[in-house]
Each structure stands twice: as structure tokens, then as C-alpha cells.
Design a protein that fits this description.
Blueprint lengths: L1 H5 L1 H17 L3 H17 L3 H14 L3 H17 L3 H18 L2 H17 L3 H18 L2 H17 L3 H18 L2 H17 L3 H18 L2 H17 L3 H18 L2 H17 L3 H18 L2 H48 L4 H71 L4 H28 L3 E3 H18 L4 E6 L8 E3 H21 L4 E9 L2 E8 L13 H12 L3 E6 L5 E8 L10
Parallel strand pairs: 2-4
Antiparallel strand pairs: 1-3, 4-5, 5-7, 6-7
Helix pairs in contact: 2-3, 3-4, 3-5, 4-5, 5-6, 5-7, 6-7, 6-17, 7-8, 7-9, 8-9, 9-10, 9-11, 10-11, 11-12, 11-13, 12-13, 13-14, 13-15, 14-15, 15-16, 17-18, 18-19, 19-21, 20-21, 21-22
């Protein structure tokens, strides 16, 4: 398969020739093998429907177990790219069952890694990480560099989605180094594109464009239409965000063309969204609304809670079936042992004769009783295993119900509100006051969703490191910076604090909310030209200072609103001290002091 990755076009010519020869000589097994191999190459070139059809044809005549598993794996990969996640997982589980039966470790790890990608697309990150780490452990043990690269790549994507960009960049660069050592043009293109994405999130736009253009160049060279579409989408997004609207249109058109050619669902969805942004920037609201509706319709069809439930159910059924097979195997072994023991007892009884009949009867009774005890013990163990499986299934169903309730009662309703307000905005000519009010409600609802995501982010962690908190603060400052043209921001932190400090999820969230409230107050009321945040340690205390050079206020006469009271209440909850220093035309300083002895820390202060 190395040739397929390095030179797919040459591989196509060779495989087409092999298929023609096999068909000429009516060699059904080689026909199936050649069709599946062609399917793999076409998948690498982004032609997913054609690739899927070839592998499905190969299933009809293939007899070799590993070749059969390879066809299932390729079908799963094509369905994943086409957005049919339930069908993708079904095919992957068929492949995994065969590889486990054949004890093919590398192939097992490859499929497990692919299953993790399905969960990643569905937003089920904990399941995705579980599968990727399991696959990476096998690849590293077997020193399989290609598998290690793909595993690092997938873990990096999850880190990027969680906002841990430095970790994501390191994993992507490790993957890129491995792909270059393997001289895999497709792997180099994918890893280059991913590195560019991280630079984009880090706001290093020039570096991002360099990597995205390099990825597009390589994808063109190997003829991967799906990869070309993804790279052009990324370039168009950067151009739109940097107000190079006319330049972006060319890349959006190309991205949409290649995405439709490969029928890659995610890239089609992205291109439709950017068309909406483009026409909105050109003040063509009618066309913008048209593309936005197409975008939301496609997105809703690909990602919904029912699909997640079915996908989770498929894995539960697979794991249950696997356990049942193990139980049946144990019972068969037990029955065979009983038969062997009975034969041995009969043979001994016949040889010893009548002289030892009474002794043999006593021994036979003892052995039978012992065997019954063992059998009862085994049956009890099997019952316990079945109860455990049933309990796990019930817990999984409960998690799905909770996920469905959250989606329906909170996320779906808030998203519906935003969508309804946007439809009103684009569909009707409204008075300025009403339009401003609707905009305020939309922004408030969007803020509520962000705060819900922040809360879920904190709840999903056993603890929150200072690095996590700094990344969250940095993201907040970056967003504020883009919306506040006349205000400059700074964020400084003592380098010695970068490793070791951890908070509980509740304390970490309270600290973040205090800083967020202080920054919001400075933006709203201070009329400042500069706002800064600094973090350092002093006198066995962690100190966080939020300062501005604005108009300030009189502490004696100012009326404390909910914002200041909430900051003081949160400080009391985490055992911290908060000091507010301000005066007319002297700016404002908010200092948070947190005793280090209350924090889990390993650094030298």
C-alpha cells in the first residue's frame, strides 16, 4: 500500500491493469482484491462514492478474511466522509470483529482509530479520545509509524477543538515529521493543512496561509479533490475574516466545486456557510439568507441526537455480542472438560476392578461433587458478568437520555431562538429600534450558549490547570480585542507558573468568572484606552491583577451592582481576597489574592 500513498495516479494505472487481467482470466478472488484496492486509492483521491461502490462489489467474491475486513474498513471510511456516520460505524465494527478473530494487531488499531474519528465528528469527544489512545498504544508498541502519525493527528484535532492549541500544534508537527520521513504525499498534505489550522486559531495568519497553500499544492499534485476542497475552504475563511472579500469568492467557488465533486459532506457544509458570510459582507441579504438556510439544513441532517443514539447503540450491541460469545466459549470448554473427566473416571474404574469398587465409588462421588461446585462457581461468575454488562448498558442509556434532554431543553431551544431572530433580521424590513432590540437578544442568547459551553468545559474536567485558565482568558481577550477597536489589551504571566498549579473545576470556573466580570466592567464603563491582565506569585500567594487607564470611580459613592457583588461572593467561595482600587480619572485596579497552600502545586516559589 506504500505506492498508493506516495503516487496514487501511478497506483491507479497498475491496479486497473491488474483488474483487467483478472477479469480476462475470470479469477474472482483477484477481481475482488483489485476492486477493493482501487476503492482504497479512489478514497485517498477524495472520490468517495466511486471508492465505496468498488469495495462493496469486492465483498461479493472475496473469500480471504483479511481482504474482507479491508473492504469493510474502506466502506466505513467512505461513509464517514459522506456524512453517514451510522453506516460508517457498522462497517468499522464488521472489520474490527474479523481483525480480532485473526489477531491482526496493527489492523485492529487502524480500525479503532477510525471509530474514534466517527465519535469525534459526532462531538462525542470522550469516546473519541478513548479509542484514539487505545489505537496509539498498539501502534507505539508495534513501532508502526504510519499508525502513530494518524493517531497523533486525531488526538491533535480533539485538543484543537478543546482550545488547547499548543498541545495540538505539537501533535500535528510530530505527525508531519513522521509523514515526511515516510515520504507520504497524502499524509504530508493532511498534516500540513492541520498545522496551518492551528496557526489560524493562534491568529498567526501569514503562517496559516503558507501551510494551507502548501497543502493545496500537494493535494493538486496527487489529484485528491477532497483535500483540495478542504484547503481552499480554509484559505477562503482567512480571507473573509481579514476583509479580503473579493479574493475570498474565488476560493469559495473552487472549494464548493471540489467538495461537490468528492461529495464530502463537511466541506460542502463549510462552503455554504462561507457563501452566506460573503453575500452578507456584500450587503446582498437575500442571497446570504438563501445560502444560510441551505447550510443549516445540511448541518441538521448530518448531526442530530438521534444519529448519536443509534451510533452508541451499535457499539453497545457489538460489545454485548462479543461478551456473549466469550460466555458461550467458556461453557463449551466446561462441558468438554466434564466429558473428559467422565471418560477418565470410567477408564480407571474398569482397570481397578471389583476389589476397589467401593473406593472408586467414593472418589467418583467426591469428584462429581467438586465438579458441580466448580460448575456452580463458573455459572455465578457468568451471571455476574451478564449483570455487569446489563448495568453498563443501562448506564449508557441513561447518559444518552441526559444528552438528549440537554440538547432538547437548552441547546436546541437557544439555537432555535438565534435562528428565528436571524430569519427575522434577513426576512423583514424592521424599524431600527426593533432591529437593535432583536440584535441585543441574539447577542445575549449567543453569550448564554458560550457560558453554557464554559460551564460544561469545567464540569468535564476533574481539575483545571493554570494553563487551561490562561488559554481560556487569552481566548476571551482575543474576542474582546476584535470587537473593541479603540482599546488595546495585554496579558502577562510569570513563566514559573506555567506548570504545576491546578484548581478544582468549581474554583477554576469561579476565578475565570471573576476575571471575565472585571474585564467586561472595564470595557463597558471605564472608557479606557488600555486594559491589562497579569498573573504572578508573591508571598505564597497567586495574584491576578486586572487594570485599566480609564475614568475610574469613587469607591465611597459608587453603588455596588450585581457584577461587583458577584465578584466578591465568588472570591469568598474560593477562600480568596479581592481588592478594588479606583479614583476619578485614575483608572481602576482589581487584585485577586489566592493562598498557594490551598492550591495543588508542584512549582518552586
Amino acid at each position: 500500500m506504500a505506492l498508493y500513498k506516495q503516487d496514487p495516479q501511478r497506483a491507479l494505472v497498475m491496479l486497473e491493469s491488474a483488474l483487467e487481467t483478472a477479469q480476462k482470466h475470470k479469477q474472482s478472488e483477484w477481481i475482488a482484491y483489485s476492486k477493493n484496492s482501487l476503492g482504497i486509492v479512489y478514497r485517498d483521491l477524495g472520490q468517495f462514492q466511486k471508492a465505496k461502490a468498488l469495495s462493496e462489489e469486492a465483498l461479493i467474491n472475496v473469500k480471504n478474511e483479511r481482504a474482507l475486513a479491508s473492504a469493510y474498513n474502506n466502506i466505513g471510511a467512505c461513509n464517514r466522509s459522506l456524512g453517514d456516520y451510522e453506516a460508517a460505524l457498522t462497517a468499522y465494527l464488521n472489520a474490527l470483529a474479523i481483525y480480532e478473530k485473526e489477531n491482526a494487531l496493527i489492523e485492529q488499531a487502524t480500525v479503532i482509530n477510525n471509530i474514534g474519528m466517527v465519535y469525534s465528528y459526532l462531538g462525542m469527544n470522550s469516546k473519541a479520545v478513548e479509542n484514539h489512545l487505545k489505537a496509539i498504544a498498539i501502534f507505539e508498541k508495534e513501532n508502526n509509524k504510519k499508525g502513530m502519525s494518524e493517531g497523533y493527528n486525531n488526538i491533535a484535532i480533539l485538543y484543537a477543538n478543546e482550545g488547547e492549541l499548543d498541545k495540538a500544534l505539537n501533535y500535528f508537527k510530530n505527525s508531519l515529521a513522521i509523514e515526511r520521513s515516510l515520504k507520504s504525499q497524502k499524509g504530508i498534505a493532511e498534516s500540513t493543512n492541520n498545522v496551518g489550522a492551528v496557526f489560524y486559531y493562534l491568529q498567526e495568519i501569514d503562517s496559516a496561509l503558507v501551510y494551507f497553500n502548501e497543502s493545496a499544492r500537494i493535494e493538486k499534485a496527487i489529484g485528491n479533490v477532497a483535500g483540495i476542497g478542504a484547503s481552499y475552504n480554509n484559505i477562503a475563511q482567512i480571507l473573509l475574516e481579514n476583509e479580503r472579500v473579493d479574493d475570498a469568492k474565488i476560493y469559495i467557488d473552487s472549494a464548493y466545486h471540489y467538495a461537490n465533486q468528492s461529495q464530502t459532506a463537511v466541506d460542502i457544509e463549510t462552503a455554504l456557510n462561507m457563501y452566506s458570510q460573503y453575500y452578507e459582507a456584500k450587503n446582498d441579504t437575500k442571497t446570504a439568507l438563501h445560502y444560510y438556510k441551505n447550510f443549516t439544513t445540511l448541518k441538521d441532517s448530518l448531526l442530530n441526537i438521534e444519529t448519536n443514539s443509534r451510533v452508541a447503540k451499535l457499539e453497545i450491541e457489538y460489545q454485548t455480542e462479543k461478551k456473549e460469545k466469550e460466555i458461550l466459549s467458556q461453557r463449551a470448554d466446561l462441558a468438554e472438560k466434564e466429558l473428559d473427566l467422565s471418560k477418565k473416571n470410567s477408564y480407571i474404574w474398569g482397570l481397578l476392578g471389583l476389589a476397589v469398587v467401593l473406593t472408586l465409588l467414593g472418589m467418583l462421588f467426591y469428584n462429581q461433587q467438586k465438579l458441580k461446585n466448580r460448575q456452580l462457581q463458573k455459572e455465578n461468575e457468568l451471571k455476574d458478568a451478564l449483570i455487569k454488562i446489563e448495568t453498563q448498558n443501562r448506564l449508557q442509556e441513561q447518559r444518552l437520555r441526559i444528552s438528549r434532554d440537554l440538547h432538547d431543553n437548552i441547546g436546541a431551544q437557544l439555537t432555535f431562538i438565534i435562528s428565528s431572530l436571524d430569519n427575522l433580521k434577513y426576512g423583514f424590513q424592521l424599524p431600527d429600534k426593533l432591529s437593535a432590540k432583536l440584535k441585543f437578544i441574539s447577542e445575549f442568547t449567543t453569550t448564554t450558549i458560550y457560558e453554557l459551553r464554559d460551564t460544561i468545559w469545567a464540569m468535564n474536567k476533574n481539575d483545571i490547570s493554570l494553563e487551561d485558565l490562561k488559554a481560556r482568558i487569552s481566548n476571551f481577550i482575543d474576542k474582546a480585542n476584535t470587537t473593541s477597536e479603540n482599546v488595546s489589551f495585554s496579558f502577562e504571566s510569570d513563566d514559573k507558573l506555567q506548570a504545576g498549579i491546578k484548581f478544582s473545576s468549581v474554583d477554576g470556573m469561579n476565578i475565570y468568572r471573576i476575571i471575565q466580570e472585571a474585564l467586561n466592567n472595564a470595557l463597558k464603563y471605564s472608557n479606557a484606552q488600555h486594559i491589562g491582565v497579569t498573573i504572578h506569585s508573591e508571598n505564597q500567594q497567586l495574584k491576578i491583577l486586572i487594570s485599566d487607564d480609564g475614568q475610574g470611580f469613587d469607591l465611597k459613592t459608587v453603588e455596588k451592582g450585581n457584577g461587583l457583588n458577584n465578584m466578591i461572593k465568588r472570591s469568598d467561595d474560593i477562600g480568596a481576597e479581592i481588592l478594588i482600587d479606583s479614583g476619578i480619572d485614575k483608572g481602576t485596579k482589581v487584585l485577586i489574592k489566592i493562598p498557594l497552600q490551598t492550591i495543588n502545586t508542584t512549582f518552586d516559589v
